[in-house]
Write the structure tokens for this entry.
Amino acid sequence: MPSSAPTHPLGGVGFAVGAVDPADRHTGGVNQQTPPPPIPYVEVHAGEKRHLLLRFEAPLSGRAGAYVVGVDGRPYVVTWPAVVFEIPADRPVHVSVHVTGEEAPYAASLLLFPASRPELTYRLVYLSGATLT
């Protein structure tokens, strides 16, 4: 009988949490071999769920505050290099990213449909804007 548990976009049902080294500035303290644990979807939803992997192309400069990701309007302050969200698999989900601090308003937003691949990359292009693809 197939499992109804959501699978991680990097493979498998469930996954190990990466080793954390707060002194490692190049990976944000997260081992690149294992993805971070998913942030649960907290809105009311009884249907199937899947995992969205959101990567950030580069760490923020010293003047920036933090990445803020919105999932169906609920904001989450997250860190570089990647974050995983649990999202509904049977309906569209609105995903937005912006940067707090002096780098604002580099914002990007899209509607992720059930047939869409659940992997996005946020690219902050200084002086010209941001993309979420």
User: Anything to note?
Assistant: The chain has no helices and eight strands. The CA atoms of residues 60 and 66 lie 7 Å apart. Confidence is low (pLDDT under 50) at residues 1-31.
